[in-house]
Amino acid sequence: MAEEQLVIFQLNKQNYALSVNETKEIIRMAEITKVPNTDHFIEGIINLRGDVTPVINLNRRLGLYETEYDQDTRIIVVEHNKERVGMIVDAVNEVGRCSEEEIESPDITGEEIDFLRGVIKKGDELWLLLDLKKIL
């Protein structure tokens, strides 16, 4: 039974999860340079050790209520198709584990539900497992 490691983070007090394999690093909130005429969910760009990296507001991307940035706000830097992108999240909680058997299909429909790869039950908690390809 293969286990997958996940980065568990918060958006609007709900736990979300991303595969550790898709996550490059987690950084504190940084100075973001706004870029005009981009998609509404793109916050701007940051200089990440000499590399210009686009940053998206994940609350906005998923159609959630936007929260104020505070000391817990983090940028999760992910890589997809050799492109690095930062995703602003409310807080990063932990690195968790789950097995394939623990991932259940979300039996609901909606416009934003395409972003979900599944739902993971951990005790009393639910982790919403995101599909990075669909988000980016």
UniProtKB/TrEMBL annotation:
Gene Ontology terms: cellular component: cytosol
Full protein name: Chemotaxis protein CheW
Superkingdom to which the source organism belongs: Bacteria
Keywords attached to this entry: Chemotaxis, Cytoplasm
Pfam families: CheW
Keyword DNA damage: no
Main location: cytoplasm
GO biological process per UniProt: chemotaxis; signal transduction
Residue stretches making up the CheW-like domain: 3-136
Subcellular localization, as worded in the UniProt entry: Cytoplasm
